[in-house]
Amino acid sequence: MRISRYNRKSTSARMFLFSFILATGYWLPVTGYAGGPGSASVQILKTDMSPRAMGMGGSFAAVADDIYAAHYNPAGLGQLYLPEASAMYLSGFEDSKLQYLAFGMPLPITGIAGRARPGMAVSAVFTQSGQFTYRRINADGSVSASDMDAESNRILSLTYGEKVYSGETRIEGYKAAFDQYLGLSAKYIGSELLGKYSASAFALDAGWLVRETNLGLTFGAALSNYGTGVKYLKETSPLPSILRLGLAYERPTVLDQSVLLAVENDFYTTESLKSFRAGLEYHFEKIFNFRLGYKALEDNRGGTMGLGIHHEGFSLDFAMSLASEVFNTSQVSFSYKFTGWRPGEHKKPRYHEEEDLPRPKKAVKPAVKEPVRPRKREAAPAEKNSDLYLIY
After folding, report:
1. I want to staple 240 with a disulfide (CB 3.0 to 4.6 A). Which of 40, 58, 288, 366 is the partner?
2. Geometric angle at alpha carbon 329, from 324 and 334, rounded to 5°
């Protein structure tokens, strides 16, 4: 197979990519130390945070084109073209709840690789796992009861993503156009058990996204929740680190409609678990989105479904799982894209060989001369009264 390239990566882009590969190579060996299912702490980090992603079975690492990319694949933030804010609410088994808030925007500067504007987002997750009733037998034989939170968590994240490469490559006569994105996310995790035992941890996420724009194919890879363990008393429990590998394909159908297909394989590097996810999203007239998905190879296997409604910059998304009663959850989110926002002037980079070609000069139209019109002869001024009178 013969491959010829039409452009070259910048030095900064190569260094950024090289650093990402080294970091990923350091993280992957933790897979050999995986414990049993449920051995990791803060299990809420494994939960889908987006109704759109949940409706597609959670297969979102290769899609990652909205504010929720910060949770699934940080590299996707490089695709943000407008500021976006979102709030999500999850209702789970019994009285467990989850709230998610996020805001992201493209920065008004050029990224590290010098290709385009990067995207940055901040997000916060607050969870409550229900109430726990503690009953104690007193010395006089009476029983006293008190309610306390079983578990509560707060997760704060700062995420950065940018485009590091854009160009064309000829493969056996086919001219492929590739865009590549990289991203990183830093997390602070605070957890509390029974309202008494507290712990904190720090974690990193990293992501890589490759899009072939002509075919509509996208490959995504992300490592989430890699960091320090959580220590409540004496024993430290690791975080549920996840390696996500996904593939997505989007194709227009008729009029303003299109279909998006996505598959993903997740590997839990600190637990002996894995998951296969697949989903479909159908865009109808840029207003309605219908979603179906399925999860396999895990305890929470089963189908999912979702619906999205979009109007101008507003969007309302809903999703629910169709698994067993214990795992059934529903999510709803409200998002807004600031469509009136206009970035400052920014010179768009050119990546192909036309950089060396002189730009054609604009043709200057000759000035059209107005025809010379003959001037009107001015009337002679009236003669002034004279002192000479004629006498007849």
Report:
1. 40
2. 155
Contacts of 274 (CB under 8 A, 6+ apart): 265, 266, 267, 268, 297, 298
Q: Report CA-CA distances (Å) from 284 to 272, 294, 303, 309.
A: 40, 21, 22, 10
| Inter-CA distances, 30 with 34, 243, 276, 371, Å | 7, 11, 21, 86
Torsion sign across C-alpha atoms 351, 354, 356, 361? negative
pLDDT tens per residue, range 17-67: 444 444 444 444 444 455 666 678 888 899 999 999 999 999 999 999 999
* SS3 category, 24: helix
Distance of CA 60 to the CA centre of its chain: 9
How distant is the alpha carbon of residue 33 from its chain centre? 30
Q: Are 97 and 91 in contact (CB under 8 A)?
A: yes
Number of residues assigned to the chain: 392
Strands (E), the chain: 3-5, 84-91, 97-106, 119-128, 131-137, 143-149, 151-171, 174-193, 197-212, 217-227, 230-231, 236-237, 242-252, 258-268, 273-284, 288-296, 302-311, 314-321, 330-337
Output the pTM of the full model: 0.76
Domains with residue ranges and CATH for the chain: 3-343 (2.40.160.40)
Eight-class DSSP state of 214: T
Structure tokens at 94: 């019994």
Half-sphere exposure of 215 (CA within 13 A, CB side): 16
For residue 382, the 8-state DSSP code is P
Coil, strand or helix: which one is 22?
helix
Residues 133-181 pLDDT 10s: 777 787 887 877 777 777 889 999 999 999 999 999 888 888 899 999 9
Q: How many angstroms separate the Cα of 267 from the Cα of each of 30, 159, 271, 373?
A: 12, 22, 9, 87
Distance CA 82, CA 105 (A): 6
